[in-house]
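Usage

Read records sequentially. Each one opens with the input sequence:
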Amino acid sequence: MDIKITLTTILRDGFILVFNQDKLDVVKTAEALIAAGIGNMEVTCRIRKPLEKLERLRKELPDFCAGAASLIDFDAILHTYNRTHADPLPTVRQVVDAGASYIVSAANLSDETFRSFHGRLPVIPGCGTTTEILDQFSKGANLCKVFPAKELGGPAFVKAIDPAIHKMISLVPTGGTNAANIGEYIDAGVLVVGGSFSMIEKPVLNKIIEEQDYKLLADQLRRTKDLIDAKRAEKWPQLNFADADLETISRVTSRNFNI
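and closes with the structure output:
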């Protein structure tokens, strides 16, 4: 899938769901997202058989932007983990070969990953400091994930560091995001928010899982999408994210996406 199409989809969506729930079907979850008006999702490599899930998504929903997340981009650590675990962590190249439309990590990504994949698909490294954000962006990151966002200081952290990056780099806060703080993140300049199923109230999520109720899941996801759309419309009233192209989003928001 073309890098500009994938990145435009993520920016139009304004939300990246972290698929970290083995008890839900990955394709049916993606279909629930589509029903909610969202065209992307990251499959975390912390679940079982992530490569198989990515391959299923690519085969059954070829136009859906399925990313791969929780990647360990350091060979020595990957080797150490895989020696002692029956379900090995895949490499960046393996998830790309399995059909990942974009790649995400909780940590910085290696120079080798940028050399191999910059310009081919969106690269979203995890960052926790201004220096890491600037370093990873200078190597080719398209967006920078702020993780764990809540522990780093939440919206206040993003608002505080944004002037230091000259309000140029688009940050994706992930970890502790919810309906109560999404508006604050967007007010701080965030275009895309990351979040997991923990954003759904626990009794509702339990019902979704126990009954495999993907219509209810779609309804919950639509609430998040509607909230993000409303808050972004307040922040950038002159921008219609639903049909804006990458260049227009960049021009109006002053964010650079390294394309």
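Summary fields computed downstream for this record:
- The mean pLDDT is 97.
- The two ends are 15 Å apart (CA to CA).
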